[in-house]
From TrEMBL:
Sequence ranges of Basic and acidic residues compositional bias: 220-232
UniProt-recorded name of the protein: Putative transposase
Domain Transposase IS200-like stretches: 9-124
Domain of life: Bacteria
Organism placement in taxonomy: Bacteria, Pseudomonadati, Pseudomonadota, Gammaproteobacteria, Chromatiales
Species of the source: Arsukibacterium tuosuense
Length: 232
């Protein structure tokens, strides 16, 4: 099945992932991680994209972000990708592509799904067996969202702010979320939506996205001829 074109909606959170070509390493050391974070901060501010959660792994990047207009995330990722590739190729005396084609993204329903995406992203190093706790991994937003580390990059989403009134209580409530794992069915849903580019959310949310963008948000059932779809 052909991959659907990406859709963006101003004010609606997006889960973004970009992988190294053939899953090759795209961050060799701390200087590389720091360079990417620096330019992510620069371009997210330039294109008015709020970054809520992020993690940099050795061969891929996850972002949870919200743009103020429909083009912000695309412009940010294009500028960031080009800038980092030039840096990486120059630093390691290489040429050619670094990223695995275009980045992938999907819109995310705020209620029920957004805070799960926070956890999914920041738990990547734990699932990969790199660290025992999200707090042990330097290159993610966990220390910002859970422990109060100052950041000019991360901007909290309203769902995060709604966890509690005070900063200390909010951080504690956020840490408490990490006491339970993301269930396998939801993990599979997150992975399939980012792969297909379809919205992550319930049926109502997907219907709203389809109505606003004119692009379907469900998979076509195999073996059915065109024109055979019936209204739900």
């Amino acid at each position: 099945m052909a991959r659907l074109p990406r859709v963006h909606l101003a004010g609606v959170p997006e889960h973004v992932i970009q992988r190294g070509n053939n899953r090759q390493v795209c961050f060799v050391n701390n200087e590389d991680f720091a360079a990417y974070v620096y330019w992510l901060k620069q371009y997210s501010a330039q294109f008015e994209v709020h970054i809520h959660a992020w993690v940099l792994m050795s061969n891929h990047v996850h972002l949870l972000c919200t743009a103020s207009d429909n083009s912000g995330i695309s412009l940010m990722m294009q500028s960031l990708g080009r800038k980092y590739v030039r840096y990486f190729n120059r630093r390691y005396l290489r040429t050619g592509t670094l990223w695995e084609g275009r980045y992938k993204s999907c819109l995310v329903q705020e209620e029920h799904y957004l805070l799960t995406l926070y956890r999914y992203i920041e738990l990547n190093p734990v699932r990969a067996g790199m660290v025992a706790s999200a707090a042990d991994y330097k290159w993610s937003s966990y220390s910002i969202n859970a422990l109060g580390k100052h950041s000019d990059l991360c901007q909290p989403h309203a769902c995060y702010l709604a966890l509690a009134d005070s900063v200390a209580e909010r951080q504690q409530a956020y840490r408490d979320l990490f006491g339970k794992e993301v269930n396998e069915a939801l993990l599979a849903d997150i992975r399939s939506t980012i792969k297909s580019g379809m919205a992550l959310g319930n049926a109502r949310f997907k219907h709203e996205v389809a109505a606003l963008t004119g692009r379907r948000q469900h998979r076509e059932r195999p073996g059915r001829p065109k024109g055979s779809e019936q209204a739900d």
